[in-house]
Design goal:
By secondary structure, this protein is α/β, with parallel strands linked by helices. Helices cover 36% and strands 11% of the residues. It has a 5-stranded parallel β-sheet with strand order 2-1-3-4-5. α3 (46-52) links the parallel β1 and β2 (66-67).
Amino acid sequence: MALVDDVGRLLERVPGGGVILTSVDAVADWARGQSLWAMPMGTACCAMELISASFSKFDFDRLGTFPRPDPRHTDVMVVAGTITLKMAPAVRRLYEQMPDPKWVVAMGNCAVSGGIFYHDSYSVVRGVDEIIPVDVYVAGCPPRPESLQDAILKLRERVGEGSIAPGRTRPSRLTLPGRPGEGGEAS
């Protein structure tokens, strides 16, 4: 990622580099959004829905989201289920092992807010956002795989708003392949 950051800084200094940078941003973010590799972190009953999301009925592969067991090869951590205080350092360590840029999806009420177990137990974390930053929340107990697919699509939109130049964002209204309704679909 250091090479991409250097290109962004270099293009910011060149006169007219903003036009080139916008085009490079669009291509880089399109590629990033189309190939989000997910690390499933299933700890409770939501893990069954997370697993079923990769079956042929829901087919996450067509969205470019592939489950990977190694945090060093993933972009997205999908936390599905209850996180206990004893498990929190391990979740944090796995998050820190992921390369930048990285995103987190909190799936299910337990990952979002501690769920029904937070009030009856001293050992449940009140949401994974107390440990690591969360980008997309998926509510439900347990949420359906369609909800997780919607969260991945929302995350793709969020990735498209980023930039390779530090501190710079751009609106995601560019016409890119694969965006239905915005002129990007094939005829």
